[in-house]
Inverse folding.
């Protein structure tokens, strides 16, 4: 496919280069034109003067811009000029609602849209090692696969529009901490209706991963927490940490939060389960909101904590 790239920032510059290496890059456009002109001259591709000009000569456009309003702005500029049957792949990190809005806008022009947020940082973009989480139709995903594989190492379709962004949001929750974030993220993913087995496989290769995510998130998926590291033992260790920090006059918020959650688990009789049992508490967050509000389809491997 003749592929254009929009948004030559820290991530996009590398991603565009990788598309060129794969023989797919036809044209580039960047809001600050000098970046596009320099790259185009180096790679021998077209530097489009605006998104419409790029659209007119491409079957697929990959974009990686900053935020929600930027995605909608670029989509509106592309839509009237793209040939019917073209494909837009958005690698920006935005909301699932924005992804669905972009898909709706493009559908009116006979153009398909995939939300494909990425994880793996600038290094992952440079090395074509990104974890890519796609949302959109199966057919669009199949067409996009050669493009996505030129930029990433783990490319997964999670469901309809917005599902890729939901998976990315799950990844970001994990970055807030270790086991608590993993537990929170898994309950969030469950509520989104994401396929949890695919999620672990893909995000385990992304920048937000950790030993606990790779080795203990499967417990959460199965709703089974055989003792690895027991809740009560970790609670003991954290009590020691609390004490040591207190000597410096410090209170550690993560330690305090986890001690509170472990106390709850121990009181409920789960002290000898693995600490991934934290998930038991996190699923309650979504039940209070009325149960699963998942918008995706085809979820598998739901936990039953
Ligand atoms: P960046 O270096 O700030 O680049 C942003 C790019 O978007 C620039 O090319 C910028 O153009 C363009 N842009 C912004 N607003 C635009 C608009 N309204 N119209 C057209 N172009 C616009 O950002 P980045 O680090 O590459 O990140 C891009 C996206 O990837 C973000 O959504 C980010 O959350 C996500 N992401 C980043 C990382 C990371 O480690 N950096 C990892 C995963 C995901 P100008 O050159 O004119 O400013």
């Amino acid at each position: 496919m003749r592929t254009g790239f929009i948004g030559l920032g820290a991530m996009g510059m590398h991603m565009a280069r990788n598309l060129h290496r794969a023989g797919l890059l036809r044209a580039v456009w960047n809001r600050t034109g000098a970046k596009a002109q320099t790259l185009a001259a180096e790679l021998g591709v077209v530097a489009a003067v605006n998104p419409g000009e790029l659209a007119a000569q491409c079957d697929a456009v990959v974009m990686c811009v900053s935020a929600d309003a930027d995605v909608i702005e670029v989509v509106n500029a592309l839509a009237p000029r793209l040939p019917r049957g073209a494909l837009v792949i958005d690698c920006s990190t935005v909301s699932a609602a924005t992804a669905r809005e972009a898909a709706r806008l493009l559908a009116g022009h006979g153009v398909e849209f995939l939300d494909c947020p990425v994880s793996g940082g600038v290094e992952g973009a440079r090395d074509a090692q990104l974890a890519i989480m796609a949302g959109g139709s199966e057919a669009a995903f199949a067409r996009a696969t050669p493009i996505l594989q030129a930029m990433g190492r783990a490319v997964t379709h999670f469901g309809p529009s917005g599902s890729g962004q939901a998976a990315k949001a799950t990844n970001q929750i994990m970055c807030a901490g270790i086991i608590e974030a993993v537990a929170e993220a898994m309950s969030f993913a469950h509520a989104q209706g994401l396929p949890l087995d695919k999620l672990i496989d893909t995000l385990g290769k992304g920048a937000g991963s950790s030993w606990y995510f790779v080795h203990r998130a499967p417990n959460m998926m199965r709703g089974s927490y055989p003792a690895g590291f027991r809740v009560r033992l970790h609670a003991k260790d954290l009590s020691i940490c609390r004490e040591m920090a207190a000597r410096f006059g410090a209170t550690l918020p993560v330690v305090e939060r986890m001690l509170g959650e472990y106390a709850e688990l121990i009181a409920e009789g789960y002290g000898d389960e693995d600490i991934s049992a934290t998930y038991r508490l996190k699923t309650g967050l979504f039940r209070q909101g009325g149960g699963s509000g998942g918008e995706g389809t085809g979820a598998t491997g739901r936990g039953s904590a």
